[in-house]
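Section 3.1: Structural characterization of target chains.
Under the original work plan, the team committed to producing a structural model for every single-chain target entering the pipeline before any wet-lab resources were allocated. The record below documents one such target. The sequence was received from the expression subgroup and is listed exactly as submitted; it comprises 122 residues.
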Amino acid sequence: MNVVEQYARAQIVTDADAPQAAGRTVPVRLSYDPGRDPRTVRVSLPGPAGREWSLPRELLEQGLRAPAGSGDVQVWPCGRVQAVVEFHSAQGVSVVQFETKALTRFLRRAHMAAAATEPVPH
């Protein structure tokens, strides 16, 4: 199967589970498995809690251009080269800032993986 995994450096702006992490740059794992769910990407923050959020691939794409989202996940551009992803949980809010080019590269690879798994029309 065409699973896509990519690590991206991200800055923790706020972290509900680890307030001491604010301001740190960490490796965040981005993953996409079209066989598991072709509409969803996963974002995993490092740490003992192993926090992972699932969000619609389309939401991440839209959020790179304009504010998008509702409920548990919000995404918006921050200047010309960064994007912010805000995750809401029972513990509070975690805000993570990425370089837009890292997210764009991941989404490009996810699109290629999705296209490779689509059935060929006869």
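The CA atoms of residues 18 and 47 lie 9 Å apart.
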